[in-house]
Each structure stands twice: as structure tokens, then as C-alpha cells.
Amino acid sequence: MRWFAALIVYRILLPLLFLAAFPGWLVKMLRRGGFGTLLGERAAVYGEPVDFELSGAVHLHAVSVGEVMLALKLIRAWRVREPERRFVLATGTATGHAVATAAGIPGLRVTYAPLDFPSMVRRYLDRFEPRRIVLVEGEAWPHLLIECRRRGIPVSLVNARMSPRSARRYRKYAAWLRPLFRMLEAVAVQEAEDMEIWKLLGVRPERIHHTGSLKFDPAGGARPEKRPEFQEMLDAFGENRRVVLAASTHTGEDAWIANVIREAASDALPVIVPRHAERRSEVRAELEKAGFGVVLRSAFHPPAERALLVVDSTGELRDWTAHADVVVIGKSFLATGGQNPAEAILARKPLVCGPHMENFQPLISQLVAAKACLSADGPDALREAIRRALDPAVANNMIDQAAKVLATHEGATGRILCLLGAD
């Protein structure tokens, strides 16, 4: 009865929430240039005849760019085991769609995941006839799960994690949500302690598997590598300068972190990589107001004195990390949640973060406890942390300890593939 009532409420609220979110969504698409990427597919309206589609493929659903990168990692590893296996990657954003398309994986069809209206979900499933659907860290949409259950299409959730905030919310409404999560064929969790919450949410114990994190698995994905063209840009600012890279910064952090970098080491080159490339004008204005000359990666020119580099591109952060001497994690100082520290660890770079890394617990706590990461809660602490991380002896010890912590997730990709039936 509760599930029936919850479904009625959801069906009433869904169109209202869509209408409320639509103006903001339009603005976001204009900023990110998403209108040229077949966004009609979000409503399950397709330009090509159905005869041209891949039926019987494995579908992966990934909402954000980060989830798209994980889906691509899983697809690449799956294709090593089953070269003939066909895949469709359904994304939730125009940026994610662009990253998936640019990956150039042979035979991969990139589309948009349909909005969770019953008619749109049915059209999507009628067109593609998926063999199975894999949700990558994504939301379990009620109409998608209901329609897949009716058609006998198995749906799994991989790389599942629960932040403390999400766990509290799910516990509060567990009785209402159990019928939804019971429809999942399998749940692969990153941390063993999360298994209990999924049991509370109604997933059968035998369907919950502790695999480790696909995101943090050192194997199964491309490692950061230096690129000659990146090094040429950095050398233009002065050869052999130490590089302090601020990764995935959010509003307000760009000039704040850049100033601290300059105060910590006047000879160091700040390299700012905003989380969203379309913020380039905002970032540039903020940095110029703070007295910095700004060179954009997208319009590179010989730098002036006191200039820094802003990497306003998508999908390049991993390899820029390989050129850094220290990596400072954005969205962890003036915002909450943090960003992924794994690429810096894989690149063997010392790591500095702020106090707000909630989305990457318990990993970040393990790193701090092992002295594999420096946590700073303000400008003075960040200045000192950068100075310490630039010390080769301190950096080497941090790098070695971080690699040990990350190694606990080694093999997660393979365990998830086995769970999904990959040969």
C-alpha cells in the first residue's frame, strides 16, 4: 500500500518538478552548447529509423561526466573479455554525451537516457530492446525499473555508495522505497559497511556484493600520462617551474586557491582546472580582478609576467594531473562534497584537500590517517600544506602511502564484470 501511494505521489510530482527545472536546464544547455547533441532523445524521440539501432546490447546509464568516465572504463575492460559484446551508453548531460562520443570506442552507441515518464521509457525500451541495464552510481528511476521488470530485463547498480546524508534520508523512507530497490538484480557496493543500508532498503542479501570502487581501482583504466603539447604550454611560463594544479575548482575557489599558491611558493605556477569549462569567463574575470594574468588553454598565447594557466577543456584533467608537482582538490574548501582524488594518486602526485570531502568518504579519512594526504581548513593551513607537499621527502612518503590505500580497491573492475556475467 505504501509503495502504491508513493508511486501516485511520484507520478503527480514528476511533471511539476520537470516544469520547475526546465528553465534552469535550458540555461545550462545554452552555456554548455548542448543543443547540437540530439537532446530530443531525452524524450525518447530519435532521428534515425529503428532498423539502424543496436538491439540486444548491454546498456549503461551514467548521469554525470564522472559517471560517464566510469562507464567507459567498465566498457573498455568488458570488451577485453568479450570483444564482440555490443554496448549503448545512455548519458544524462550534454557534456557527458560529448565525452562518451569523443572516447571513440568501436561499436559503442551513445544516446541520452530517457526522462522517467512511462511513455518515454517504453519508447526507449521498444527501440533498443536492451539485454541488460547497468546503472553506474546512478539513481534508480521507478518507471524504468517497473518497465524493465515487466519485460524481464535485469537491472544492476554498480559502484554504489552512500554518503552519510544519503544514508540518513534513505533510512527515514526505507519502508516506502523497499519495493523499488527489490527490483534490482544486483548491487555492487564500494564499501562493506554500506551493505547493511541496502539490506534495509529491501535488496536481498544475496544480491548485495562488496566489490570495491570502480573509480578507485588502479587497474582497468587509463593512467595519467604526460602529453608533449601540455608540457610545451607549461614551458612557455618558464622551464622547470614547479606546477601546483587546482583540480575541479568551483565558484569562488579559483582566485582564492591561486593566491594561496603564490604565497606558498612564489616560483610555483598555478594551473587552475575548473570543474565546468563553460565557467571560463567567470574564472578569468575573478583571477584578473585578483591581479593575475590569465592564459586560457583554449586560446593559448605566450604568457605575460604573473600569468597563470586556466585549463578550460573537458576530459583532459587526468593527463594534466601527470604534469603537476602538487594537486589541490577543488570543491573541498568553499563548497561541499569534494572531487575525486584517485587520478592524483594514480599519477603519483602529493595530494592536498580541504575539509569538505564528504562524497569521498571513507577513502579521504583513510588517506589522511595514513599521512597520504594533507587536509587544510583555511588559507594559512593550505599555504603550509602546499609548502610541505612541495618538499620531495614529504611528497615521496605521501605518494607511497596513498598508493597503499588505493590498492585496497584493486580488482574492483574485474569483480564487477564477473557480477554482471562478463566471460
What does this structure look like?
- The chain has helices at 2-32, 65-81, 94-102, 118-128, 142-151, 164-172, 174-181, 195-200, 228-235, 253-264, 280-289, 317-321, 342-346, 363-369, 379-389, 392-406, 412-419, and strands spanning 58-62, 87-91, 108-112, 132-136, 155-160, 186-189, 208-210, 243-249, 269-274, 293-296, 307-310, 326-329, 351-353, 374-375.
- With 423 residues, it is α/β, with parallel strands linked by helices.
- The chain folds into two domains: 29-217 and 411-419, 3-Deoxy-D-manno-octulosonic-acid transferase, N-terminal domain (Rossmann fold); 228-408, Glycogen Phosphorylase B (Rossmann fold).
- The protein has a seven-stranded parallel β-sheet, with helices on both faces. Strands 10-11-9-8-12-13-14 form a seven-stranded parallel β-sheet.
- The two termini are 41 Å apart.
- The model has no long low-confidence stretch (mean pLDDT 91).
Secondary-structure-derived class: alpha/beta
CATH superfamily of the largest domain: 3-Deoxy-D-manno-octulosonic-acid transferase, N-terminal domain
% residues in beta strands: 5-15%
Number of DSSP strand runs: 14
Number of helices in the DSSP assignment = 17
Under the CATH scheme, which class of the largest domain?
Alpha Beta
Number of domains: 2
Work out the helicity level: 40-55%
Please name the CATH architecture of the largest domain.
3-Layer(aba) Sandwich
Shape: globular
Q: Kindly state the mean pLDDT as a whole number?
A: 91
Low-confidence stretches: none
- Say what the CATH topology of the largest domain is: Rossmann fold
Biggest sheet statistics: 7 strands, parallel
User: Major sheet: order of its strands?
Assistant: 3-2-1-4-5-6-7
N-to-C CA distance? 41 Å
